[in-house]
Amino acid sequence: MIWNSSTENSRSARARAKQQSERGFSLIELLVVMSIVGLMSSVILVNLTKSTRKSRDARRKNDIAQLQKAIQLYFDDKRVFPPNADNDGAGWDESNDGSFLDTLVSSGYLKQQIVDPRNTATYSYSYQLYNQGSTNCTSTFYILGVRKFENDPALGGNAQCPGGQDWDTLFDYVMQISE
User: Fold this and answer.
1) Which of 18, 105, 147, 150 has the greatest number of CB atoms lying within 10 Å of its CB?
2) What domain of life (predicted)?
3) Structural Rg of the chain based on CA atoms
4) What are the extents of the domains in the chain?
């Protein structure tokens, strides 16, 4: 091979290109990777948030079923529904007031107090006992409800007396159980 300045220049150009490629990633490559990672993390975060909300709603449904069973066991043993502690001044025993259906815990029908996963004024359970004749109903009954679900649509319920209060408008899920 004949050595000349053009051969030397092409070798040094290749050596410089090799050194540059060994140094690391270019700015554009880094930006592309960062944008892909950012997009993937935002998709994962959205899905995680949705699944967390669904999980809390599933727990709410399970909690209400447990409360209903405990109230029914209490009624079967004592022939009366448990009293409610009116801590809000409106007659409702609310899970976010600290003493939600304490009678069920102190009597052994529940191991511990059951409260909403978020347990705020917006997300809470409510219980109220009504005597016979109140709100145009012919028997003693109680209302047990979930104020609000996060993800599930309102499930409604069957809580109303003819000509009386319609509790379906106050809760996303509500049940009325009579003697």
Assistant:
1) 147
2) Bacteria
3) 32
4) 24-178
Burial letters 150-178, b for 16+ CB under 10 A, else e: bebeeeebebbbeeebebbeebbbbbbbe
User: What are φ and ψ of residue 170, in 5° steps?
Assistant: -90, -20
Amino acid at 46: V
- Identify the helix (H) or strand (E) that includes residue 112: none
| Cα dihedral sign, 138-131-84-126 | positive
- Per-residue pLDDT tens listing for the chain (179 residues): 555 555 556 666 666 666 655 667 888 988 999 999 999 988 888 778 888 888 999 999 899 999 999 999 999 999 998 988 765 557 788 888 878 888 999 999 999 999 999 988 889 898 888 877 776 677 788 888 888 888 876 666 666 665 567 777 778 888 877 77
CA distances to 50, 68, 137, 176 from 72, rounded to whole Å, are 33, 6, 19, 12
